[in-house]
Amino acid sequence: MKVILKQNVESLGNAGDAVKVSDGYARNFLIPKGFAIEANFKNLNVLDHEKKMILAKAEKEKKNAETLAEKFKGITCTITRRVGEQDKLFGSVNTKDIQDALQAQSLEVDRKNIILAEPIKALGEYPVAIRLLAGVTAEIKVVVAAEA
Question: Do both 79 and 134 map to the same domain?
Answer without folding.
Answer: yes
